[in-house]
Design goal:
By secondary structure, this protein is an alpha+beta fold. The protein is built from four helices and three strands; from the N terminus they run E-E-E-H-H-H-H. The protein binds zinc ion (ZN).
Length: 128
């Protein structure tokens, strides 16, 4: 039912530690969710149908919808940043590197300038 995932395991959808696994019924089907508690609030990640557990489904709710829906994308980014708190420095740098790479690919000339200004400001902060 819970696909072998348990409290404390990293969530396959967002990477944050799982606080609980919950199953919801819709009609006559059951769906599995990972529950995350962040301070006083909580969010859930859809993990797939309880009876099927199709691996590809794991990344659809966040990955595909996230890419075309701004709110979901922002939510995903917030989850990612939450996740960064719980990972190693090296992994954090790896993620930062990838984010910068994606920004660079998407940026036009003016946006590249803004990216450079942001990075320069960070370099100044790091020097101080
Ligand atoms: Zn999650």
């Amino acid at each position: 039912m819970s696909n072998g995932l348990k409290k404390g395991d990293p969530c396959p959808a967002c990477g944050a530690a799982i606080d609980a696994i919950t199953t919801r019924r819709r009609g006559n089907r059951y769906y599995v969710y990972a529950v995350h508690k962040v301070g006083k609030s909580r969010y859930e990640c859809y993990l797939g149908p309880a009876e099927g557990y199709v691996h590809a489904d794991l990344f659809n709710p966040i990955g595909l919808k996230g890419a075309i829906d701004n709110d979901r994308f922002n939510e995903y980014l917030a989850r990612l940043l939450y996740y960064v708190d719980n990972i190693s420095f090296d992994k954090g740098l790896e993620i930062l590197d990838r984010v910068l790479e994606l920004l660079m690919e998407k940026a036009d000339k003016e946006e590249r300038e803004r990216l450079m200004e942001t990075l320069k400001a960070w370099i100044e902060r790091l020097k101080s």
